[in-house]
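As a warm-up, study this chain.
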Amino acid sequence: MLISLSSVVFLASSAWALPLAQSCLDNGPSCFPLGSASFNGSLQPPNMTREEWWCPQSMTYGFLGFSYPMEGECYDDSFERINADLQSMKRDFGASMVRVYLPYCYTTYIWENLIRAAVANDMGVVAQVAWPLNGDPLEYWQKIAASILEIFTTSTYKDIAPYVFHSVEFGTEPIGDMDDGDNFINDLIDFKAAIKPYSIPVGISEDWDRPGIMRANETEGLGPVGEQILPQSDFVHAHVMPYYHGYNQSDAWSYIESQVWWYKNNTPVPTIISETQWAWELNVLHQGSKDIGTPQYVAFWETYDANCPFFKETNVGWFLHAWKWEAHSDMGSVGPASTTTNTPIIHIVHFRFYPSISREHRLSISQAFLALQYTCISPTTKKPYIRSFTGGLDISIENLQHGFSHIFMLEFENQEDRDWYVNDDPVHKQFGVKQLTGVVEDVMVMDFRRGEF
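Now compare it with the structure written out below.
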């Protein structure tokens, strides 16, 4: 089922608003997540089979949702943060699914939080096994795979997981990145076999426009690697990326259209465009087309939105890449509709205790400080507003601490929340007076926004 992006909220200022696109929304049957079926907020599995629960492939076309980078630490992916993001995706854009991208918390923590948030928002989840791109050991992909399997076998959410997880991508451009070399096909086969008892479809997320590798050197047909991958694929999650293939924006749609027909003709399995993007500004680490800028970025997504009948005809869904953190092709930083006051702020706090303060006293103060995440209340929403809060004891071996032994990291949704916390929040102020006076010799505080230098 296609839901038009319509006026596209991420460019919704009067200067950049897009015209309403024609809606291709159908009235779906009682199925999930494109029909009327709902979890109704319950973490108990629906009283039906997985096959009965999920909407058929014939309904899975057009805009489905967003690629959702999860490239931070585990504490970046709290339930509260994920839930807020999924709420926005569904409320502001009509997303029905979310595609996880590069999950770098190598435990079940993020999957459990995703399940809870997806249930709360009636959204399906495309999970992903990824080879790390952040400098972590490449073999950590095995930890991600194991954490996903653990969700289905021993976790608290094992019964409902098949009703939340739509599918699992085994790698994102694993062929282009040569993940695990010649062992990759066997890795894919083994993972697919391990998750088969839970009826979860498995495939790779990849750009198949690799002549002589994924596709034949001629226009039609598969290449030698494509011929090995396709029999192990329950679906194709395609990277259709005219930007990275050097096209001008005005020619992007002809490339997209030709690629969709190539997949339809050569990969006879359900197809979703899992990654497609344009850049509004040059980024030296993500160079592609030279035809970049905010107008091109807007026009690129307008074109996708305007061609909903094509995606319905071809029965192809697509995810917008990406929701956040992806340089100059994410949702959070484009155009006048976004200002620095509306982007998250990381607030770093260091404590240097007086030497006479005991370890037990330091621990109690640290615990009281962390508790502010739940006791500091927004004057507007009347709810806690610190998005995430973590901390710990310094373990550096560089001897550059200058006596600071405890470090804490808070994240605020925007500058307004940060300013309220620093200048006005009575709970925060009381903590400082009651807990820190005569105990902490010095405090060092620094704030930053990710990627702003």
